[in-house]
Model the fold of this input.
Amino acid sequence: MLMMSDNLAKYRRLSRRSAAVMIHCTILSLLTIQPCSGFIVYPKLLESRMEGGPLTLHVHPGLILNLEKSSIFANNLHFVSSSNENSDHIVVNGQHLERNLYHDATHMSSVIVEQVPRGVEVRGIVTYRHRIYPLVESRSTEGDIPHVIEEIEEAQESGHDEGGGHGTDDLQDLHCASFEMEHDNVKPQLHEEFIVEVCIVVSKNYSASFNSDDDLVNYVGAMFNWAAMPYFDMQCPRIRFQINNITKVEDDFLFRNESCGISTDIHKFGYNASVCGYNAEETINNTVDYIKACFDGNCDIVYHLTSKEIFLIRNGSFQTEVAGLTTLAGVCSVERFAVGEDLPHTYNGRVTVAHEIGHFVLPKSCINVSTSANYTNDFLPGENITEEQFCKSMHPGIQVIPRHKKDTKECHVNCCWNGTSEEYVYSEENSEEEYSDAMDESTAVYHNIAYDDYCSLDGMLDGMACGENKTCYRSECSNHNWTEIRLKYHTLRTFP
Done:
């Protein structure tokens, strides 16, 4: 009689326990889990080739994850905690924090897998609609750690709105952390990868739900790793999201005026329910104000995670279905803010994160105006380019001119053209005064040639002139100190 190996015997015992559980709950198909509350499983590592390498995780007989190592944090992750009295800032090892972070793109899994002496502990998003966490206070008679798989209750939304208003003027006294984010002076690889640098803002009310700062960081990392998965297959350039900073802020800095009303969200609150919360537009504006006043870091996206109820007033109704809001949503610009609801530990804000990130358009001006990378000088692409040259670079092959309008956003230019554009060749010798004199604002005619048929509002490059002694930096027109900017950030992104 053949004797089973210890591993095979243990694996069969695991299968029998899982089969017993299936009596009480419909098991997963190969790709999805049917809705089931409190489904108990006993995850087990079947294969681990090397430290930091791929893992094969048996969740139960219906679900085996082929996990790849994930990276979501900057090497030097900045962690800031601001209070009414003072502010603390530390730099932590991002690689160490993400050492147990893995993903399975097929099953949309983003999990933290920690090998412990008595087995394995798994936390995070195990499939698109389900989360997993260990029951660390109990274990089976054979020592395996039981885990709970629960369906993530989705936020019911009538739709997301974009376009927050302008910042408020009544800034409170803020106690800001005195720090500068360090950037490694590393020569980038040509046109291979674009790193979207993300900064996270949470209120003290939100962070208080976690036992430690490490727990908060791991949770945020797993959720944003999940939201970044749709970009994993993108090429030319590759898109990678990197969390540079997590800031904990006093609630008073982010939330001002609580309002109550009759919610339109029947699914969540029922009929005629009175609900209190915070206006989403005011909340995102308060976040903008805080970042501008207190933050000296490099962020392409600033995302405010909140457990507060946010709402919008539309046509007089108190709409609480909204779960997220962005500003005008441009990476590499001042319009890079978003706010989204999330109940700590549940990951129910993960879809909102992915949705709002999807609104952050990567302008062509960020990556592909230059014809080749140039490491021989410290000039930014916009420092030696006119508006006409910029428009021609943005719209090659057509005759195009820059046109100024009264309502044009700062550090943006209207590049315009039409069918009659060949009758006039715009000359660089034309001064701005001549251009303004020639422009008939009432009919939008330049030298009697209407360039009103087609216009593209394009964000100007960093370093382009936008006024007397003023230049653009991240779509903000001001008297920027470029010596200081180069010293801090260098020119790390140049693509062909």
